[in-house]
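User: Can you predict the 3D structure of Bcr/CflA family efflux transporter? Sequence below.
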Amino acid sequence: MKTKTTLATRIWLILILGTISATGPLSIDLYLPALPEMTQDLSTSASLVQLSLSACLLGLALGQLIAGPLSDKYGRKKPLIIGFSVFAVVSLLIAATHSVFLLIGLRFFQGLAGASGQVLSRAVASDLFSGTLLTKFYAMLSAVNGIFPVISPVIGGFMIRYVSWQGIFVLLAVIGFALVLALWLGVKETLPPEKRLGGHPVESIIEMFGFLKNVRFVKLILATGLVSGGLFSYISASAFVFQNFFQLSVQNFSLLYALNGIGIAIGSIIPGGLAARFSETKQTKLVLTTTVLTATLLTLSALFFNNLPLVIILVFLIVTQFGMLFTLTTSIIMNLSLQNNGGISALLGLSQNAIGSMMSHIVGIMGSATYLPMALSITGCLAASLGLFTSIRRQP
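Assistant: Sure. Here are the predicted structure tokens for Bcr/CflA family efflux transporter:
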């Protein structure tokens, strides 16, 4: 542990950091139940509407490259307040659009602005904790973050019954402004001036990319990014798979998606409880292996069974393991003891969101007539992640 914090302070940090790190679930899961309606209302194709998801993920990825290194120079608090202010304004603009192409563009800027929450929540935690304590803190942080995938689709599905899809983005604007107020009044700066980078802001960005010379670091962030690719393969296809292919109602899909969100939250907590007995590396290798096996069973079911209860069980097991992997890989990377935690967190986020964006678009192109593209994408991403992680373990 780097600094002493009271229990009350730690609980507050978990709550506020868990909330601001939920930019992804807030921006994505909340409007997932509305995707089929948006396709009809905007008179467009499912793949174009899914592209708005990819655009948001791309914005989340690139925005972290800005917010992360700048926070190493100017501190964590200012970039967070600016980011969520812009997030709220762009959300209002999205609510007013009637063009799918304008929607895609604005979603990119929404992700770009909201990226500060994802990257800086990790940086703030690593400013305060290290080692096993950091793993335990990330576990609790991920559990709070996991609440949002649970409640977001339920809220979105409920709202779609009474308001148009634009109402969801009005709600996002309200959330954005509320977070600005919470950050302004309830969060102290965790990076003191004497620990900040000097020089021009561009130098901070250049120094961040210097981490890419570290082969182990690059393999770790790619392995983590591929886990995100698997998760977003599920996220982008889930509404079409369960509503169109399996004919679930919007409300039933929202409840199913919420159940899987609970699985992610449960999985996120598990590594913290095991951290004192088993290393993060051993846990990660084991969980990656079991996730590949589970995803392979999902692929086989798409080829031979198409059984809804079986698919629900397998997807729940997969996303629960996703929760474990995100806690483990994040802790491993942020514990590398490299300088400039904001830059490290930014490159981690870039890998997660860029690969997630790419895979969500690929799944959309492959079609929604079956869940085989989703299953193949998840299996491929996790197998590649396991290969990278195994190659790291073999290094002297």
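The two ends are 28 Å apart (CA to CA). The chain has a mean pLDDT of 84.
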